[in-house]
Amino acid sequence: MKRITDVRDFFIFGNVWLALCAVAQGLLTYRLLRVDYSFSVVAILFLATFFIYNFRVLFNKDIVEKHKEERTSGHMRWMAYHAKLLSALSIVSLVAMIPFVLGLKGKTIVVFFIVAVLALAYALPLFTKSTGLRHLPGLKTFLVALVWTLSTVLIPVVESGVAFAPLVLKGLLIKRFILLFTLALVFDIRDEQTDKENELHTIATYFGSDKTRKLCLILLLIELTLIYCYDYTADQRLCYAFMLYTLLVAAVVWGGKYNRSIFYYFFLVDGMMVLQYYMVNLAF
Questions:
Q1: Strands (E), the chain
Q2: 199 phi-psi bin (left φ>0, alpha ψ -120 to 50, beta other)
Q3: Which among 143, 124, 134, 119 has a CA at the least distance from the CA of 59?
Q4: What pLDDT, on a 0 to 100 scale, did the predictor assign at position 127?
Q5: Which among 4, 80, 271, 281 counts the fewest CB atoms within 10 Å?
Q6: Residue burial 26-48, b: 16+ Cβ < 10 Å; e: rest
Q7: Which three-class secondary structure state does DSSP give residue 76?
Q8: How far is residue 49's CA from residue 147's CA, in Å, rounded to a whole number?
Q9: Domain segments of the chain: what residues?
Q10: Which fold, 2-283?
C-alpha cells in the first residue's frame, strides 16, 4: 500500500499528471486541426511543464526548507522532502527538451522562445528575491492561462503549418484561454487564505471566493456562447460535446471549496483538461 501511495504522490505532487494534462491539451489542438500530431511538440509540452512547475518551487530554497520543517502533510511538504530527486529530474527534462526544440520549424522556435520567457518570468523572482511577475496584483492567473494557451494552441498550430483563417484561430485561442483562466481561478479560490498570508494578490484574494466563483460561471457562460457561434454551423456533434464539457466544468467550479481534498484539485480540476480531449475524440 505504501508503494502505491508513493507512486500516487509522485504522479500528482511531482507534476507528472499536470504535464500529461498539457499533452492532452496539445493533442486536442491537433485533433481540431485534423492533422497528425508532432511528437516533438508533444514531448516539449510534457518536459517543459514538468520542468517549469518543479523548478518554480525548488528555485526558492527558503520556501522548501520552511515546508520541510512543517508537520502537516501536503503538496509543498512532499516536494520539500523530495527536492533532490525533483531537482535532478528537472535538469534531465531540460536537457532532454533541447533536441526536440532544435527539431522544430524556425517560426515555432520563435513562439516557443516567447512562451518560455513568459513562463520563466512568472516562475522566477525578477524584482527582489521573493517577488516576480506573479506577485503583481491580479497577474498570476492571467499569466498562467496565457502561457498554457500559447503553448497548447499556438505552438501546435504554427508547427503544423495549417493555414487557419484568422477568425477561426482567434476563436480557438479565446475559447482555450477562457477555459484555462477559469480552471486557474479554481486554484486561486483554494489558495485564497495562503495567498493572503504570503501577500500574493490574486483575483480570489481581492474579490473573495464567492464572487470569484460567480466570475468563473460568467466566463463559462461566455464560453458557451462562443462555442455556439464558432462550432455549431461547422460541426454540431463537436459543438454539443464542447457544450456538455463546459457544463461539467461549471459543476466542478461550483464544488471547488476550501474543504475539498487536495487531490480534488490536483486530479479532478486539472484532469478536466484531459477529459476535454477524450470528449472531443468521441464527437469525431
A1: none
A2: left
A3: 124
A4: 44
A5: 4
A6: bbbbbbbbeeebbebbbbbbbbb
A7: helix
A8: 10
A9: 2-283
A10: Farnesyl Diphosphate Synthase (1.10.600)
